[in-house]
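The data are set out underneath:

___
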Amino acid sequence: MKFAYLISAGAAVLAAPAPSPAANPLPMPTPPGIPSSSAAKSQLADLAVSTNEDDGNYERDLFPTWDTIEGTCNTREYVLRRDGDGVTVGNDCYPTAGSWTSPYDGGVWDAPSDVDIDHMVPLKNAWISGANAWTTSKREQFANDVTRPQLWAVTDNVNQAKSDKSPDAWKPPLSSFYCTYASAWVAVKSYWELAVTAAEKAALEDMLDTC
């Protein structure tokens, strides 16, 4: 079975290669720091609400990735090893075997090339909601944050469909993941003291109501 993802209201559709079949579904990955729904609601209530300011100066290189996190593992390799099942790696830390279940859509993959490492709060969204005032060093910490639920191993096409959209413009294909998605988004914005728009906050509230 192949998955197709609509990436624009106009019609462009990307077809992802079929995920590997799994007789028994693998457990969803659980990055650290995901708050309870009640804690997420409290954190959301405390976030500053403002209009995003896009100064036109965003560039991905302003958020350096991927840092060396552990041993020879850079951030991407670290998350692939953390979130995969039965992952083995070579001396360079690149996976040589394993399976990855994408929590956004439930796809199961056995090739790391089919998996992207998604920033829960996209880098451009961070930029327009406060990170444009940060130092490059702080933006680098944000882009490589493995302490909070900021980095997720997900189906590459789904990550591309999400792009830099906030929850009022994009939600995961799996509605059963709404609660975790919103909780993780809020946790990241709360820790890094990033603002939300009114529409973003309303969408997060709706998703947290599914918990």
